[in-house]
Design brief:
Tetracycline Repressor, domain 2; homodimer; DNA-binding; about 200 residues; 9 helices; Arc Repressor Mutant, subunit A
Chain lengths: ~200, ~200
DNA sequence: TAATAAAGTGAATTGCGATTCATTTTATAA
DNA sequence: TTATAAAATGAATCGCAATTCACTTTATTA
């Protein structure tokens, strides 16, 4: 016998896998998921097309991994920021601020996630919807808590949560798509005011 | 010479074209635009696949015609309802009510337009974005008018308009996707209250 | 009713991009 | 240094769906 994968090689492979993901994020953001062939992706990642399949079973596996990573990062960031507050309104604000900050930091990633929203395949679409619904659910929990404290009017918190998340979604989408509003952080302040009033504080 | 298209035939062709569009709306709503082949569409429309190309130059031409029709219907409906009012807030409410009513009436259509949002091709995507932006623009005009009357705080009306439209968008999307909220008309009332407060009336 | 043109048909073609695979290169260990 | 297994390569294959086209059917008019 002669050859057992050594640590040095393992690290090299790990690195290369990360490079492929990085390249994928870039080309997917430039073109779209659908619009980029494995060939083009491979070119960007500086590997042969066949090599791609040594790292991912297929194109879907790749996009799923990317979306999962994004989702995890988003949730982690939200949880981190929320932990700093106890008041319901503060937590709500912290959540959305975490989103905004992450999107600013990872604009490319956000484009894939939010702008391209490709109906690519059911599994992928379902994942995006799941993320959105998770955010709505988290928001609804905050609203229910505030409502139980008598700090919000007795309206349907599900609809309010959707309105809340939807308003952010729309502004972020437009910012990603056409750069309007120019300053997302500034828009965030307006948006928060809008929604806090909307909730009926 | 022998044969000139007669009126009877012209009408038959017109009818068939409409049937194809109707069938397309149905299958696109069931599966997606991308997910339905011309063959499947033809089957639904009870024509041969080749016949499709006698009516449309290609698949894109079809979806563009459908989206255009939807857009026209939506704008017409909005304008109709708005014309009944002069007060800014009333016009705003009338616009959104017109949207909601049309979406309820044309749920299938709405699914294609809003849920599938396929990144299919740039031209198509651009059209969807255009529709959304048009709505935001119309809303912004209303807000600017209200602002000039001193009936709204001095915040960025573009961001407010996006928040307004986005909140509706989100609720409608969720209603289409998973049937929550169950009663869209009821949600509409909550949403209007939310947004009127949000605007800072 | 016969000649002709429009309308319709669906199997065959085409094109495109994901995936495979025979071959080459690189890394490991005896 | 050599034998062997892993990793990489990219041209060839495969599959799928849009589009075409040779042929059939239907409608019109002389």
């Amino acid at each position: 016998m002669a050859y057992r994968q050594t640590n040095r090689v393992k690290e090299k492979l790990d690195l290369r896998k990360k490079e492929i993901i990085k390249a994928a994020r870039e080309v997917f953001a430039e073109n779209s998921y659908q619009g980029t062939s494995i060939k083009a992706l491979a070119k960007k990642a500086k590997i042969a097309t066949g090599t791609f399949y040594l790292y991912f079973s297929n194109k879907d596996a790749l996009i799923n991994m990317i979306v999962d990573e994004m989702f995890q990062e988003l949730l982690k960031s939200i949880k981190n920021e929320r932990a700093k507050f106890t008041d319901g309104f503060d937590k709500l604000k912290a959540s959305m601020e975490a989103c905004i900050k992450l999107f600013i930091k990872e604009k490319n990633m956000a484009k894939i996630l939010l702008v391209q929203v490709p109906s690519v395949n059911n599994a992928f679409n379902a994942k995006l919807v799941e993320i959105e619904n998770e955010l709505i659910k988290l928001t609804k929990e905050d609203l229910d808590e505030l409502k139980s404290q008598g700090r919000l009017p007795g309206e349907d918190t599900l609809v309010s949560a959707m309105a809340f998340v939807g308003s952010f979604h729309q502004v972020i989408i437009n910012w990603l798509r056409e750069g309007k509003p120019e300053n997302l952080e500034e828009a965030f302040e307006t948006l928060m005011k809008y929604n806090i009033r909307g909730l009926g504080k």
